[in-house]
């Protein structure tokens, strides 16, 4: 099988492979609060982290993801009425580079390791340094870091998902023609973030949405901007299997058409 025949799958990192909620344990230690309160702080941190990226996109400004993560944490702490020392904040930032994974991630990476038909990539809002450190430091991911052909970030583009330029950057990095609809339609994004799914679909990609909660697809912006997910799955391992089946089924349909 030539590289042109292999399926390109780009995996979002934060909220898809790495659990941003896993920072709650570290937060509980520094904030001296219970697990429930730490989870609330972690969720608010993530909310402002994403909100800051969207606001910067709207203003045509860019600050790297490490800076955004730091600023959103400080916003979160003020809103949560928590005071931490600079040393504690630095410790939390360090911990962010070794977030835990979701249970469905290691089996997915195992499947990718033995796959002869998939070219896997990371595609993240994170900085090159953050992503590289996370992939190599997270115990469940580090044994499989060689599974990924490349760690692609938005740092070079200096814009955040779901800006169209970020997806075009990904397409170029994996060797696809941004002006060729068929080329773009052969790229898959796997993400647990609805805004990322809508962005990928608007750019012409296929997308597998990881719905771990099981509530189903609710995001209605896709109705006006490229559509919703190509497939909905319960975990990353299911995404890999689902994409393989989707590609196989389309291949059979194509053969019948010939």
TrEMBL record:
<keyword id="KW-0378">Hydrolase</keyword>
<dbReference type="GO" id="GO:0019120">
    <property type="term" value="F:hydrolase activity, acting on acid halide bonds, in C-halide compounds"/>
</dbReference>
<dbReference type="InterPro" id="IPR036412">
    <property type="entry name" value="HAD-like_sf"/>
</dbReference>
<dbReference type="InterPro" id="IPR023198">
    <property type="entry name" value="PGP-like_dom2"/>
</dbReference>
<dbReference type="Pfam" id="PF00702">
    <property type="entry name" value="Hydrolase"/>
</dbReference>
<dbReference type="GO" id="GO:0016791">
    <property type="term" value="F:phosphatase activity"/>
</dbReference>
<protein>
    <submittedName>
        <fullName>HAD-like protein</fullName>
    </submittedName>
</protein>
<dbReference type="InterPro" id="IPR051540">
    <property type="entry name" value="S-2-haloacid_dehalogenase"/>
</dbReference>
<comment type="similarity">
    <text>Belongs to the HAD-like hydrolase superfamily. S-2-haloalkanoic acid dehalogenase family.</text>
</comment>
<dbReference type="InterPro" id="IPR023214">
    <property type="entry name" value="HAD_sf"/>
</dbReference>
<dbReference type="InterPro" id="IPR006328">
    <property type="entry name" value="2-HAD"/>
</dbReference>
<dbReference type="InterPro" id="IPR006439">
    <property type="entry name" value="HAD-SF_hydro_IA"/>
</dbReference>
